[in-house]
Amino acid sequence: MKPSDVGVAVMVAVIWGLAFVASRLALDEFSPALMTALRFAIAAVPCLFVRKPDVSWPLLIAISGTLFLGQFLAQAYGLAHGVPVGLTSVIVQSQALFTIAFAVIAFGEMPTPVQTLGIGIAATGLLMICGTVGYDFSAGAFAVLMISPVSFAIGNLLLRRARDVPMFDLFAWLCLVPPLPLLALALVADGPRPTLDSLIHMSLTGLACMLALGAISTSIAYWLWGRLLRDYTAAQVVPFALLVPFVGAAASTLVFGERFGPLRLAGMLIVVCGIAVMLLSKRPQVLPEIA
């Protein structure tokens, strides 16, 4: 890879890692459903300027419902209910494990021995993390958060059916699906008045976080990542996604003062090591996690 493109890959990973911090800050002002709705309403603006890709509406809705709506709503819920930012960034990255596992079920794609080893390592780390649940956040919040990597993995596999279409156009139109259902959910779950108050009394910090999540982390970063995947092999590009949980954990420590006990920290590191083994094998089959 050219040095400039290496810089772009690192920059995207840093953006996605910092997005976890932006999400947590935004949740001080918005409910999980409303925050996620605003994120994709902003990210959907480019669809006004690009044509709808040659993808059926049912497939478009299925991809967006899993890859975007399910993943980010569950992620926001976990963050809003006390799951630490750094831990969340690692848990969501475990979508690599679920993507490979679901590919076995859906397509009969048997993982390589190296990928199988990576799955075992990552699963061990997840079990260690599970052993720390219940102290500073509830098991329910952790269970909902686990929907995020599972939903992302399903979206990865559905995305394979949308081949030979411009990726920027596709992702712009995928962003069009979540806002209305999530706004409806916010109105029902939170009530019309609290939802309206959140929008009316939005602070500059809240606005900045939403613009960062919608325009930078989703629209721009996805476009840059897609360009890298167009110009280079997945084996060259995807490993840079391993920087995301490290950036997320480091940023959460600096901004929120998060600290991790020995067992949880060891589990987080083991999960990342397992994902590294999977992504650095000869047959990378997964997309990177974003926030």
TrEMBL record:
EamA domain segment(s): 8-129, 144-279
Keywords, alphabetical: Membrane, Transmembrane, Transmembrane helix
Name this protein carries in UniProt: O-acetylserine/cysteine efflux transporter
Principal subcellular localisation of the protein: membrane
Topology of the protein relative to the lipid bilayer: Multi-pass membrane protein
InterPro entries: AA-Vitamin_Transporters, EamA_dom, EmrE-like
Compartment(s) where it occurs, according to its Swiss-Prot or TrEMBL record: Membrane
Assigned GO CC terms: membrane
One Pfam family of this chain: EamA
SUPFAM superfamilies according to UniProt: Multidrug resistance efflux transporter EmrE
Residue stretches spanning the membrane: 7-27, 33-50, 57-77, 83-107, 114-135, 141-159, 171-189, 201-225, 237-257, 263-281
Superkingdom in the source lineage: Bacteria
Taxonomic source organism: Bradyrhizobium erythrophlei
